[in-house]
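Bug #77: duplicate submission created two jobs. Keeping one. Sequence:
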Amino acid sequence: MLEKIRRSDTFKESLLEILIYIAKNRANNFKNTLKKELEDLTFMPYKYRQSIYFNQKNIRDFIFKGYCIPYVIDENKKEIILLDIIKWEER
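Kept job's structure:
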């Protein structure tokens, strides 16, 4: 039975490049999916629950992959304002 695995510098560098590639790919997928789903808010802005962070009916919480994005519906300006993106936790 062998007791040790030794990693060459080349292996370590190649692995790091792969991990960076995977991280970028996942980040781009997250960003693109989020962007698409946020665009759907314009059709049904009141679809999501009233915010647990703010006590106003026009502020909603959009939940996405473990994150909460509170947003304001401004009927006068006909726009949605994304306030923040935070790690979501149920209260």
